[in-house]
């Protein structure tokens, strides 16, 4: 238990070392300007509470020691603690996540964080992790054991895969209060409305029937 607490503390300390990396940059996907404030209000981030009214609960989140539900099709769960969970994170440029993996095959599928670099520390188990560079694409991978740390640069496709016969647990710090996530397979085959299957058939050099089957698989994912 002491080792567990030390590693969690290490994850937090490492996360905070990245706090200045990205925010303030867009904290939503876009921030469309409006001619008059009375028409609509949408700020790049969140409005601030009167500091005289803040309480300890504004900076607190309980229960990150509780395992997430890994009974799903990919065998993993990410418990994200961002500004929506801890209001006090607003403007601080940092968030944290717990990652749980089922025994061999638990996968956090290829995805990107459009607004944050990720630094991950393994607490239990053995993870095969990696990311892909921008064009020309190069895959960089590593097998991680408890206590190992790995960095996933902002905006790059990355993944984590449990290659052990036991559960795996990791913690990750992200350099944004709202790093966002785009899971590649879901974004390509499961958006609403769907992408024209002719586009995907051409892009992936697949039969249109196969594309439509994949879209059917991911539409309710």
From TrEMBL:
Residues spanning the signal sequence: 1-21
Coiled coil start-end: none
Main location: secreted
Binding site for Mn(2+): 111, 113, 118, 158
GO MF, one example: manganese ion binding
Annotated positions binding oxalate: 108, 113, 118
Disulfide bonds: 31-48
Annotated keywords: Apoplast, Disulfide bond, Glycoprotein, Manganese, Metal-binding, Secreted, Signal
Keyword Signal appears in the UniProt entry: yes
Domain of life: Eukaryota
Domain spans labelled Cupin type-1: 62-212
GO cellular component: apoplast
Compartment list: Secreted, Extracellular space, Apoplast
PANTHER family: GERMIN-LIKE PROTEIN SUBFAMILY 3 MEMBER 3
Function: May play a role in plant defense. Probably has no oxalate oxidase activity even if the active site is conserved.
Assigned protein family: Belongs to the germin family.
Protein name: Germin-like protein
Lineage of the species this protein comes from: Eukaryota, Viridiplantae, Streptophyta, Embryophyta, Tracheophyta
